[in-house]
Specification:
Elements: E1 2-6, E2 17-23, H1 34-42, E3 52-57, E4 60-68, H2 75-91, E5 96-100, H3 107-121, E6 145-149, H4 155-176, H5 184-197
Parallel strand pairs: 1-6, 2-4, 2-5, 5-6
Antiparallel strand pairs: 3-4
Helix pairs in contact: 2-3, 3-4
């Protein structure tokens, strides 16, 4: 998954799906389209934690994600909300998701949105048989791109979170491999490969 930060509004991105977090007892996000505001006004879209609602506007899907009360919100809440949004985006066959980082939440929350999305995107498919002929309109199993619309100073946190989350998923791959596949020799070879890829990392097997 390609992860990037942008300072542009989510509506200006080329994402097919936009996720907007909603706090309780606060105004609608400034970039929310009229269609999403109507769902909020009607009560179809809720602001309670992990509540989801979908609207379509400007050729995009707009996914409202409830964040609960701001006083209770944390980076861990952001990870959970991002994971919930990722699962809904999977149902929608999204390929590019843009998260609007909630205002005044800081770089840790922007990074947590990345971590929650990448960790929820994980699937262990090493031993699954590939279909003989791909379907004509196969639904994507994974996101191709993730954009985080946030202030420029959060870009480093977004990039670092992507590295950490991808490393976690790589470790999950190792954990999920059976012992007759991930033998001691295979694990040693994996470690040596990392040593060749990562500057400053020395490996002794």
């Amino acid at each position: 998954m390609l992860v990037t930060a942008t300072t542009s509004p989510p509506g200006d991105s080329d994402a097919d799906t936009v996720a907007l977090g909603l706090f309780e007892d606060e105004d609608d996000p400034p970039h929310a389209p009229a269609e999403l505001r109507e769902l909020l006004a009607s009560g179809e879209a809720a602001r309670t934690f992990k509540a989801l609602a979908l609207a379509h506007s400007g050729g995009k899907r707009w996914l409202a994600v409830g964040l609960g009360a701001r006083k209770d919100f944390s980076a861990e809440n952001a990870r959970v909300a991002a994971a919930v949004a990722r699962e809904r985006a999977r149902e929608l066959a999204a390929r590019t998701l843009c998260w609007q980082a909630p205002a005044e939440t800081g770089a840790p929350v922007a990074g947590a949105l990345v971590e929650g999305t990448i960790l929820a995107d994980y699937r262990f498919e090493r031993h699954k048989t590939a279909p003989e002929a791909p379907a004509t309109a196969e639904r994507p199993k994974h996101l191709e791109r993730l954009l985080v619309s946030c202030p420029a100073e959060h870009a480093t946190a977004v990039a670092q979170a992507a590295v950490v989350a991808e490393a976690v998923n790589s470790a999950r791959d190792l954990q999920n491999r059976p012992s007759n596949d991930l033998t001691p020799t295979a694990l040693g070879e994996h470690a040596r490969a990392l040593g060749e890829q990562i500057e400053g990392l020395s490996v002794t097997v």
